[in-house]
Every structure is written in C-alpha cells, then in structure tokens.
Amino acid sequence: MSRKRRVTRPSQEGPGPHGGVGRGWLLGIFLAALAYRALCFSAVGDHPLFRYPVIDAGAHDAWARRIAAGDWLGHGPDDVFKPPLYPYFLATLYGLFGRDIALVQWAQYLLGSASCVLVAVLGGRLLGPAAGRLAGFLSAAYAPYVFFECQLLTPALSNLLNVAAVVLLVAREGFPSRGRLVAAGALLGLSAGARPDVLLPAALVLLGLGFHHRRLPWRQLAWGAVCVGVPVAGVPAAIAVRNYSITGQLILVSSNGGINFYTGNSSAADGVSAVPVGLRWERLVARVPQEVLERPAAASRWWSRAAWREVRAAPGAALARLGRKALAFWSRREFRNNICYHFMQRVAWPLRVSPLQFAVVLPLAVCGAIGLWRSKVAMERLATRLCVLWVAGYWVGGIAFFVTARFRLPAVPFLILPAAWGVLRIVDAARQGRWRSLGGYAAAVLLVGAVSWPMWLGPPRDGWVRDYVNLGNSLVEAGAHPMGSRRGAQQAYRRALECQADDADAHYMLARSLLQDRPAEAIEHFEAAQRAMPDAPDVLLSLAEARLAQGDAAHARELLEELLRLAETSNLWPRRAAWATAHVRLADLEAAEASDHWEKAWAIDPRTAAEAAFLHRRELSRALDVFLAEARKTPWDWYAHANCGTLLLELGRAREAAAAYRRAVRLAPEREALRFHLARALLLAGERDEAARLLDGLLGQLPPCPLRGQVEQLRGQVGARQPTRQRVRP
After folding, report:
1. Which residue in 134, 115, 113, 172 sits closest to 21, CA to CA?
2. Other CB atoms within 10 A of residue 369 CB
3. What is the pTM of this model?
4. Which of 484, 522, 648, 695 is most buried when burial is the number of CB atoms within 10 A of its CB?
5. What is the CATH number of domain 609-720?
6. CA 13 to CA 128: how far, in whole Å?
7. What span, in angstroms and rounded, lies between the C-alpha atoms of 208 and 386?
8. What is the rounded distance in angstroms from the CA atom of residue 631 to the CA atom of residue 233?
9. Which residues lie below 8 Å from residue 158, measured CB to CB, with a gap of 6+?
10. pLDDT digits 0-9 by tens, 155-183
11. Hey, where are the domains in the chain?
12. Which residues of 690-718 are buried (b: 16+ CB within 10 A; e: fewer)?
C-alpha cells in the first residue's frame, strides 16, 4: 500500500493585527529594506541625475519650491497640468527642513520601507504568516522600487497609500469597520491626488470585496460603499475646487489626460514612450492654438479629439498599437519615462545585482496565482481576486494610454503577494518530492518567461540618447557639484550623439555648452540641430545670436526673420521669450524699424523686453516697473526679485537692491551667484560686515571657478577698507 504524501499549506492561524507575521519579523523587513536602500544610496544617491532633478522630477522640485515660498494655491494653467499632491508633500518637507534632495531621498526610502512592511501585513492577513514574511522581504529587495524612491517622483508616496488602503479594507474576519473603511477611502483619495490612474484598480478591488461579502445584508454593503466612496471622491473634489479657482474650468485632478492619451494613441505613438521633452515638446505644444492652450480643460479635449481622429483614420494600426501595449505591460523591460532604469543599472551595481526584478517576480506571481485560483480557502480566493483585479486595472490603464516603468510600478505589490505564495508552494513541492507539481510550475515559469523575457519590442528606439542628454542637463545644473562641469556635460552630449547622430536636443545642448569657448564648433552643432528640427524657435534664435557674435549679420537676420515667420503658422506664445528676443535683435539690425521691433517685444513678453532694455541702457524706468510688477505678481519667483535687485543696483539704489537680493536668496539659497550679488549690494550700501560674512561663506563652498575669482576679488575690496570708527559719547 503506497504511502500518501501529505500536502502542507502555508500557516493560516493566529493573524492578529499584524497578519500573524510578528512584530520582530516586521522590524526585520523594515531594516532589510532600509539597508538595501542605504546600499543603493551609497552607490548612486549623489549621482547628478538624482541630485539635480530633470523633467518631471525637476517640475515637481520647482513647483514645491514655489509652494514653500508662499504660492500655496497656484496661479495658472501650468499648475493644473499635473496632479498636485506630490508637490505639496515635497513642499512640506522643504518648508520643514529646507530644500535638501538627500533628505527627500531618505524620507522616500522610509516610505518605501514602510510599504514593504505593509505588504507583509497584507500577505499575512490574506495568505498566512509565512507568505507575508516572504512577500515583505521580496518587496524589500525589489530594485525598481529603490530606483524610483531616489527621484522626486510619486511612487514612494503612492505605493504606501495604496497598500495601506488595501490593508484597511481587508479584515481577517467579518466586514471592516466603518472607521477602517473611511480611512481606506481617504488614503485612496490621497493616492488619486498623486496619480489618478489608481481610481480604476481601486474601483475593481472594491467590487471584488463586495462580491466576497455578498452574503451580508445589502444595507451593510451600501453603507460600506458610502464610507469608502465619499472620502475617495472627496480629495479629487477638493482638487477640482482648487483647479476651478485657478482656471475657472472644471478639472478633476489634472489636465494632462488629453496629451497622455494622444501620446499613447496617435499615429506616431509606439505605446511605450511618454510625452516628449525638450525641443520635441515645444514642437508639440506649438500645434495647439493659444486660446485653447490657455484653457487647460479645452486643451485636454483638443488632444483627445486629435488622437481619436488619427485612430479613426487608421483603425488597423490603432489595434496593433493596443496589442503592442498589452504585451509591453508584461515585458521585463522597464520602459523609460524620464530616466531609464536600465541606464542607471550600468552605473549602480546594487540595482544590477539584485535578483528581484520584474522578470523574476512575474513568472513566480503567475505560478502563485494558478495555485491560488484552485484554492478552496476563502482568504486565498479573496487574495486571488484582489491581486488579479488590481493588476488588471493598471494593465487596462497602460493599454488606454502608454506603458512605462513608473506607471506599472503600483501593480507590483499585488504581483509580489502571489509570487511569495508561489515560492512557498514550489519549495513545499520540492521538499515532498512532488515532481509532477514541480514540472507544472517549471512549465508555467518557462511559458511566462517566453512572453516577458525576450525583447519583443526591441531595444529603446533612440538607445541612450535621452539619458545622456538628461545627464548633460543635470551636470549643467550641478554647477559647483564635484561631478558637475561643463566638460562633463559636453561629454554626455557627445555620447548622446554617438547613439543618434541627428538628435536635435543633443546638438542644441552641446552647442550651448560650447558657445563660450569654441564658438565655431558651437555654430556647427546649432546648424545640425536646425537641420534636424528647422521649426524650433530656440535653435533659430541661438544660431542667430551665435552668427551675430561672429559678425555674420546677414545670416543672422535671415534666421531671425524665419523665427518671426513661424508665428504665422505656429503658436509661439509658449516660447515668447525667444520671439520677443528676435524682435530686439532685429531692432539692432534694422535701424529704420527699431522702434516698431521694440514695441512688439514689449507687447509679446515684457520681462524679456525689460531685460533687453536694461542691457541696452534704455527705458530703465519702464524696465524697473516691469520687474517690480513681476515681483509683486509672483513673490515666490527668485528670478523676478533678482532682476529687481540688478536694476536697482544699476540705478544706484543699493539698499533697495540689497532688499530685493535678500528675497531672491531666501527663495533660492543654493544659487551662489545671488549671494555674491547681495554682497555687492551690501558693500555699496555700507554694510561691509554682512558682505564679508557672505563672501567668506562663499569662499568656503565654491570650488575653483570664475565665480570664485569674482568673490575673491570682492572680498579683497572689503578687506582693504578701514573699519568704521565708533564714536564714543563723552
């Protein structure tokens, strides 16, 4: 008589408030997650791409700095384009601790580590303590989490809110209390304020929970739906009120839905590329009429309608794009949104060596889901529904818009849960010698790997071009950073051109960095950028100014006139600084029409005209009025205050200039040049002691650079003056 093997299951008893995982285990998971993040920080935490944010991270940083400086509500269409919750979170940190990127990174590491603990709690509650512990440790070592937590982006915050909400929704026994339901709804509402795409998976999960409790009285279920639904809707509703107060239009959370839909569904879309940046973004925006662009809700509808027109024009190609996106969601490749994960893996060995990547988690999750689907245990069946519905919600969102690593990341915790359960089942089968079960698991892993592992979609379309351009931009922004230098930025831009020789952004940015020292080579790259993108206003203006510097006025005039002709076919208001500057340059070249050009420049962009007027030493009172009006209108804008200080200093009003520079320094303390100009103003105002303190502080911070030479020279002037003698009263 053959002996029947006993099949063991993950332990289910004694969940308690922590899912039965145990406080000691939860502490161990938190410390393991934090240790891995510390290891990653030691390798790349100071990397320019992380420390000097670009694209979305740069926009979040700039927005948060304005909020921290007093612009709490916002003031225009740009402040409703993206969801506001994360910038407010960032601004809170800036307000409490100052703008310290490393501190923000560690705050987000703490949030990420707490998310790992919550995954363990949820896993213990649904699948048993052993599965919960393993899910927590798998989350702790999941490398893409740490990659995004190191940037000024939403995943660290939204992941914590999402998992915490589901933990509150899942009661080990019975129906969650009303307090838990309200708290869960509030967390999901806050998550929607950071990333509105959570609303679909959240709705599906709530339906799944309702089905799980379908035998309860309908009144209880209805009250539960109200307890969750009201706070879920409350946060987007509050944001909509804020948006209406800014724009006079009803915008639920943000107005970028239309451009995102167009980016993922237009005839030129590949399904895995996010909204373009740099010169390509300028070209895209130039298509939208200004009267539409000034009304964000109308602009979103404009982009959606444009996408639908292109879908209807070629439905077969549109279906092919949907299929491509449906497959891309399950690919092992982490598609770039701003910075490419795989690009950073090349320089960050902790990201590279971690075995916990999407390509490992997905096959294990499928193995676990197959086993859970056949389970007769109620909580395991609930776990299956919740994980499948949550992941399906993000999958549908990716198909509707576009698939990128950052937007797929919130689905990962609900893949890790079945993955942990699947690992336990595989280990259990191996320990008991159930070879048939092991064969089934191996077949499932191979099948899923065959779908997700190969590069079906090919390598990135432009290689590492965007990443090297971003790196160069960060190195330019770094300034005095040890890793930041003009030469380093130039090397990054040249590497970008090695990847794609006709990239307009790489040529343009390289030309700008070369202009001061190697103008002839800079002109060559400006011309290459113009050939690649002849309708880019900034390229035309920069090339014209470079030609003027070389004495080639005829060629410069042609370029400036071409820029002005663009205004007849494109919307140049988003690039109005270049447009107004073109008129100022033509005023120098066309003496008979100079007055007309100046007036057009003032009408197009008063700030640009005022800056040019200051440089030309003309209409200084008018320029000062513009600068003062800008400073009153945007008190959070350090540049406006700096302009006031510069002109006031020129007019000999040193004390007023010092006050303006003080405001600019308070708003942007990291800009050493502002402190230098403040010291100049203080010296002229007779405040030599304060000027000396500022200059000494700069000398202690600045590396060898042109600004340091200016600081040393000014410090010598301060030291050469005799101290003021104090009059002694008799």
Report:
1. 134
2. 21
3. 0.88
4. 695
5. 1.25.40.10
6. 7
7. 6
8. 37
9. 191, 194, 195, 198, 410
10. 999 999 999 999 999 977 778 888 889 99
11. 23-452, 552-604, 609-720
12. ebbebbeebeeebeeeebbebbeebbeeb
